[in-house]
Amino acid sequence: MSTLTAGQIFVNLPVKDIKRTTTFFTALGFEFNPQFSNENTGCMVISEHIFVMLLEEARFKDFTKKDIVDASKGTEAILCLSATSREAVDELVNKAVAAGATTPNEVQDHGFMYGWGFEDLDGHLWELMYMDPSAFE
């Protein structure tokens, strides 16, 4: 077992325009922590312990010597969040589409598990998933 005490996670993503990105995710209902946000960075709150640091590409480069992947052309990661219901999955994806996202994949319905996702304005892939707890009783 790891010796880390991972009480929180901060996912870091490069973005082209922090204002445009902040507007997009605010339209989906996410809030931003102003203490860790500025003209180059947005700290998006997913939950009490999960945050996404949205960093303009120049700021993101402060943390790596590697090239930044153009997420509209290649995939480095898929971010998957759990939802409270099938309806919550559909609601968030539909909000994302209304705010300018695309849906690169069809809904996946496996009975006990339901998922759908979107590609945000910078090409990052977000999946939403609901698993029916009664299927595991």
TrEMBL record:
Domain of life (superkingdom): Bacteria
Pfam families: Ble-like_N
Positions of the VOC domain: 7-131
Coiled coil: none
Cited CDD domains: VOC_like
InterPro entries: Glyas_Bleomycin-R_OHBP_Dase, Glyoxy/Ble-like_N, VOC_core
SUPFAM superfamilies per the UniProt record, alphabetical: Glyoxalase/Bleomycin resistance protein/Dihydroxybiphenyl dioxygenase
Alphabetical list of PANTHER family matching this protein: BLR2408 PROTEIN, BLR2520 PROTEIN
Name by which UniProt lists this protein: VOC domain-containing protein
Native organism: Aureibacillus halotolerans
